[in-house]
């Protein structure tokens, strides 16, 4: 497969601040590449390097050419901060941007794709809600039907239903062969959309891989989160990696589980779906009273926390796909 995007040893400093410190990567034609990393890691700077909107050291190529030399109609860019004319309606804005290209898509159809229809399409941009404004900005990036689409935190401010609609739209574009380079702080978004994910930290690409491979390598084991409602569990004390749970005071007749307390929860790691009942029995046999149980498979958020050195905090809040809660 041919590479749509190539970065070789790309570096950028702002005064004494190193934003990119020798980044090399290649994105195949038709691939969705997700770039994640903490605030200030250099994601926006890399998007700007790849789109030729800032100068850098190193080499960048987009569709086989330098980004500045590429026909603008072949590229779509949604910058992180983008403010189109405030006193044009969504329709007028789309028509304006469509007019920049010889062969643009129908503005109304693009607006409909991002969920802006009816009254919202006739309102001044400045009177739309933040999420509606972001949708219009996404539409502007799509109006030229680009071969390569750069989206810098596209769904920030968009409500959950709109976010999922946008994911479906992006999946459709990717299925039709559009190359997508996406930055996001939503691990759910990246896990769902990206074929490969790059983790950027302090201007360096620390790892790249498919969500599945990264979760396998860095996500840890599936775990059962036990809300005991017991303030003693707030201590964060490790119960130790007792394979049978004995050091925690529980008689776990379940092999290869690690028990600890994190963030006020009892965390039993290494619990597969079939062992949930055994662990519940063991908890009850040990006299542990609990308010709820949540089973959580490792996901990209766990990978992120591991790779950025942030501690796992029992993360039940991040549980969506692939988890089951048992309330008592
Ligand atoms: N125009 C600029 N002038 C000076 N410093 C800058 C400029 N743009 C970025 N930086 C610095 O470069 C570093 C990388 O910034 P960048 O915006 O690329 O990070 P990011 O990963 O996109 O962050 P976020 O997740 O907060 O959007 C930061 O330390 C930032 O302060």
UniProtKB/TrEMBL annotation:
Any one GO MF annotation of this record: ATP binding
Pfam families: ABC_tran
The keyword Ribosomal protein is annotated on this UniProt entry: no
CDD domains attached to this UniProt entry: ABC_DR_subfamily_A
Domain ABC transporter: 5-227
Start and end residues of each stretch annotated as Disordered: 228-247
InterPro entries given in the database record: AAA+_ATPase, ABC_transporter-like_ATP-bd, ABC_transporter-like_CS, ABC_transporter_ATP-binding, P-loop_NTPase
Glycoprotein is among the record's keywords: no
Keyword tags: ATP-binding, Nucleotide-binding, Transport
Family classification: Belongs to the ABC transporter superfamily.
Stated name of the protein: ABC transporter ATP-binding protein
Source species: Halobellus rarus
Lineage: Archaea, Methanobacteriati, Methanobacteriota, Stenosarchaea group, Halobacteria
